[in-house]
Design brief:
mainly beta; 1 helix; Lipocalin; single chain
Amino acid sequence: MKIVIMKTLGLVFIASLLCSFQAPKSLKGTWEFAGGIYNGKKEGAPKGYSLHRKYDATHYEAFAIEKGYKTEKYESGTYVLNGDSCIDKETFCSQPSKITNIPIHYLYTFKNDTLTLSGKLPTGMLVIEYWKKIR
């Protein structure tokens, strides 16, 4: 009887441990750009303004925020999470864009409060971006 209880407790512990490491089903929240690597070249977050992305369950909006100026929405789109992949599709851009309505596949990971998106753009550029959760 003791062996059965111990095995059951062990299985419950392992199952709960595995469930605690599952990726979230959405990127819901507000994220601030913290820098990235583009074709191997490291770039920090912009100085003097910040870039935010606000995600709900399936959509996002991106904003440029600079003190003393009106917040500008510069991009929006949809996304789908599937395992460790994020498929992002820009549906609006305030500037001319070659990727509007083109799905882009990223691998995503979380470490503490930081979201990392890494992938290859249709232009061939390799990107790794870091976004810090602020809300």
